[in-house]
Every structure is written in structure tokens, then in C-alpha cells.
From TrEMBL:
All copies of domain Peptidase S8/S53, residue ranges: 153-480
UniProt-recorded name of the protein: Subtilase family protein
Organism field: Salipaludibacillus aurantiacus
Record flagged with keyword Hydrolase: yes
Family: Belongs to the peptidase S8 family.
Length: 493
């Protein structure tokens, strides 16, 4: 009893210095003139040849299109009339809001008293024991030396905020020429947020710090700007492009909510409520894009989300989302987290270290029976015990050209110098699984000349995971905590 009480007391104290940035319902986008942006999904996965004519005759204008999955984004100055006109077209399946994703990570603030004294920076981050997460997933680095040949032939596409292509721990492994940006107004995939570089470091860095699978090729597909917003059509386009470019793994440390049901839009001019079709456009678009990638042999890994929500209770999530909507849209049906709950995706919950265990669910992590496939270290503050209060966050690469003054940035810079930082979230857990997947694909390709398909990769990672929580599958960790060493050594439980 005393031990349980002490644990919850520590959690409460920990929460007092932790700002849980809840992943609220994804925002419906508008143009600069304030007109709604719509996502339109056609019955065919190929756009009609006269798609521009269809949209123009309905009183709208196409702003973006993803022809490989029959999806466009469009806008209109008369949104209600536009929706009604489009829904009379036999080619149109459904219409919904064009939704934006945000990079909403838990925010771990540092207080001045926690800053270490100025001294020479820690030179070897890995050997000095600052990466508890990678140690756990690789059995203290043992998997780094198992069947490393051929890893450069395996590509991990990171759909995120971009990379620091010159980072000393990443430069030898990133494919700048093959990287892309989908953010309008940008011409390259450099990172001005830090999230993408951090994810890339966890997957495959090697230098002062190490990732799960050093040696794999990392390619950036930038969908987030510096302020952290990404339209779903950019993300959809990035998924298609990564698959067409021959990626073996897609890491998506991002997410929002989408509807399995029907969208209703209230015309701001008439007050009329207009139905957008039986199958919500946003979920259809995600389903088609993920299926397109899987059919091309891509293993897709996603973070579960940081809202502490039970993903097995979608009606509760729907109520939660509708209660915060002010954009004229109403969701009727089941609201789910995406891409986490898209069929075929490996969905990853986050664990935190400390308190005598490295297999407890981080309290911000989403969970749910049937929704989680694997757990992985995502980090939190843990018990400081006289150590750095950041010890049990996830330390990884950040852009060397950015000066971090918020969160745990000052502490990381004081200890390690520029180029390294702590973050926590399911965003940090997903790349642990992506790294293990990439290392396993490389091993099998080197041995057999054939890359395992996404289903085989998922099954193997689940069979070699470390069983945690209830025996067998459970709602918090799925099939267990991912373990790259077990995956490479073939240690099935």
C-alpha cells in the first residue's frame, strides 16, 4: 500500500512540472479570406478527367490534389451551395472539412534551479548512459552489432518537420537529395521545428549518441512548418510519395482525430445543416493512402497519441471532439485517432522509465484494447533522485542551428552543447519501433535477397517483444515492449 501511494504521489508531483498538451480535435482549415477548405473524396481512387470542371460548376476551386487516391482539397465563397452541388455528382463519395494536424507534445518545463553548473559538455552521450530508451530497446546496444550489413539499402521515410541534414550524428545516413517538402512556400526539407530531427536520431543516429538502427538510410518528407501545422492533404501526398519512392518503413509521429461516420456542415449564411456523405472524407483519404503504401510493401508505424484517451471507446472520443468544435462542422459517428487507428498501421504507446521499472505506461499515452500493437519508451520526468530531472525523457538529435530556450533546452545545452535535446511523447516511442523494423528488414534482405512484407514485419516484432503488464496482449502495451535485439536474434517468446 505504501509503495502504491508513493508512486501516485510522485506522479502528482511530476505532473505539477508537466504541461500535458492535449491533442484536441484536429482543426478545420480555412483560406486567408476565411472560406472553409473542404476535403473531397471521389468514388474512384483515380480522379475524374473532368474534376476541375466538376468543382468549378459547383462554385468551387481546387487548392490541392492527390490523384493516386482520388482526393482533392477545394474551397468556395458559397460553401453551403458548393457542398450541395457536389453531393449531387455521381462521382463524389463524400465531403468533409480539410483538417490540420499539430505537433502537440507534452511540454516539460525546466526551472532555473535544475540547470547544471557550466562545465565541459558530456562527450560520449551513449557510453555515459544518457539514453535509457535505446539501451532498453537494443539490450544495451547488443543489437547494434547484429547483422548490420546492408542497412543502407533500407529506407525509413520520416513524415515530419524535416531534418538537420548536417547534424554530425546523422549526416552520414540522411538522403537529402531524395527528401521532399510538401509545405507550400518551402523548397527543401530542412527542419525548423526540431521534431523531425529528434525522431530521425532515435531511428538511426550514430555518433555521440546512437539510435536503434544505426546505418539505415533516413529520408525526410516534410509536412510541418516551423509553427507545427500540417494539412491532411500534405500528409496524404507524403505517404503516397514515400511509397512511390521505394521507402521500406514510414514513421508517422503525428496524429489527430478523424470520423468514421458522417460530417454535417452548417451553412453560415442560411443556417442549413448539410450532410457530407455516408463515409467521412477524411477517414477514407487516410485509409486509401495507408493501404496504397502497404500494398507497395511499406511498413507504416504511428504514434498512439498523447491525450490519455482510451482508443477502444470511440463514442466517448466523439463527444469530446464535438464539445470543442466552433468551426461549423459536427461529427456523427465514431471519432478515432489517425493514423494510429487506420488498419494496417503498427500503433505504438509510450512508456516511461524510473520508479524501479521501465515498463509503465506514460500517463499522457493513449491506450486501448485492440488499438495498440506495441509499446516503446516515450519518456517522462520519472523520479529525479538527485539526478537530472530530464534523465527519463528521450534524448536525441535536434538541429544544431536552433537555439532552444524553452522546455528542457537550456539543461540539454548545458550538459551536451548544441545539437541534442530531450522530448517526451508517443512521438518518441514510434521511432523506436521504426528503427527495429528497419534493422529486421535489412537483416532479412541481406540473408534472403527478399524484404519481408509489412504483415511479416509486424508479426515478427510482436512475437519478439518483451511481454509487459498482463500476460499476453493487453490494452496498454499491446503485444509488449519492442526489442530490436530479440527481433534480430529471433528470440520469440
Amino acid at each position: 500500500m505504501k509503495k502504491t501511494f508513493l508512486y501516485f504521489l510522485m506522479v502528482l508531483l511530476f505532473m505539477s512540472s508537466f504541461n500535458l498538451s492535449v491533442l484536441a480535435s484536429s482543426d478545420a482549415e480555412v483560406t486567408e479570406d476565411g472560406n472553409p477548405l473542404f476535403m473531397v473524396v471521389f468514388n474512384s481512387q483515380n480522379l475524374p478527367e473532368n474534376v476541375e470542371e466538376i468543382v468549378e460548376n459547383a462554385g468551387g476551386e481546387i487548392t490541392y490534389q492527390v490523384p493516386e487516391v482520388g482526393v482533392i482539397e477545394a474551397t468556395s465563397e458559397t460553401p453551403g451551395e458548393f457542398m450541395k452541388a457536389l453531393m449531387t455528382q455521381k462521382e463524389v463519395l463524400s465531403i468533409g472539412p480539410s483538417l490540420e494536424e499539430q505537433l502537440d507534445l507534452p511540454d516539460f518545463e525546466v526551472v532555473e534551479s535544475e540547470l547544471p553548473e557550466e562545465k565541459a559538455p558530456v562527450e560520449n552521450i551513449w557510453e555515459d548512459g544518457w539514453q535509457w530508451d535505446i539501451e532498453q530497446v537494443t539490450n544495451n546496444g547488443a543489437s547494434h552489432y547484429l547483422d548490420r550489413e546492408g542497412r543502407e539499402d533500407v529506407v525509413v521515410a520520416v513524415i515530419d518537420s524535416g531534418f538537420d541534414f548536417d547534424h554530425p550524428d546523422l549526416a552520414d545516413f540522411v538522403d537529402e537529395e531524395g527528401s521532399r517538402t510538401f509545405v507550400p512556400g518551402t523548397t527543401d526539407s530542412w527542419d525548423f521545428n526540431s521534431h523531425g530531427t529528434h525522431v530521425a536520431g532515435t531511428i538511426g543516429a550514430e555518433g555521440r549518441m546512437k539510435g536503434v538502427a544505426p546505418g539505415v538510410t533516413l529520408r525526410s518528407y516534410r509536412v510541418f512548418g516551423a509553427t507545427g501545422g500540417a494539412s491532411q492533404v500534405w500528409i496524404t501526398d507524403a505517404i503516397i510519395s514515400a511509397a512511390d519512392d521505394g521507402a521500406d518503413v514510414i514513421n508517422m509521429s503525428l496524429g489527430g482525430t478523424r470520423l468514421r461516420g458522417q460530417w454535417f456542415f452548417t451553412d453560415p449564411d442560411t443556417g442549413e445543416k448539410i450532410r457530407g456523405g455516408n463515409s467521412a472524407a477524411d477517414i477514407v483519404a487516410y485509409n486509401r493512402a495507408i493501404r496504397y503504401a502497404i500494398n507497395k510493401g511499406v511498413t507504416v508505424v504511428s504514434s498512439a497519441g498523447n491525450s490519455a484517451q482510451d482508443l477502444s471507446n470511440p463514442s466517448k472520443v466523439a463527444d469530446w471532439q464535438n464539445s470543442s468544435r466552433t468551426d461549423g462542422w459536427e461529427a456523427k459517428g465514431a471519432v478515432v485517432f489517425v493514423p494510429a487507428q487506420i488498419p494496417g498501421v503498427i500503433t505504438v504507446s509510450a512508456t516511461g522509465g524510473g520508479f524501479g521499472t521501465e515498463d509503465r505506461l506514460a500517463f499522457y499515452s493513449n491506450y486501448g484494447n485492440g488499438a495498440i500493437n506495441l509499446g516503446a519508451p516515450g519518456g517522462d520526468l520519472g523520479p529525479a533522485n538527485g539526478e537530472s530531472a530530464s534523465k527519463y525523457l528521450v534524448l536525441s538529435a535536434v538541429p544544431t542551428y536552433m537555439d532552444f530556450t524553452a522546455g528542457r533546452g537550456p539543461e540539454a545545452k548545458a550538459l551536451f552543447g548544441p545539437g541534442y535535446g530531450w522530448k517526451g511523447g508517443t512521438s518518441m516511442a514510434a521511432p523506436q519501433v521504426s528503427g527495429a523494423a528497419a534493422a529486421y528488414i535489412a537483416q532479412q534482405y541481406e540473408k534472403t535477397g527478399v524484404k519481408p512484407n509489412p504483415g511479416q514485419v509486424q508479426t515478427h516484432l510482436q512475437q519478439t517483444a518483451v511481454d509487459t503488464g498482463k500476460k499476453g496482449y493487453d490494452e496498454y502495451y499491446g503485444h509488449g515492449i519492442v526489442n530490436s535485439y530479440n527481433a534480430l536474434a529471433g528470440n520469440k517468446r
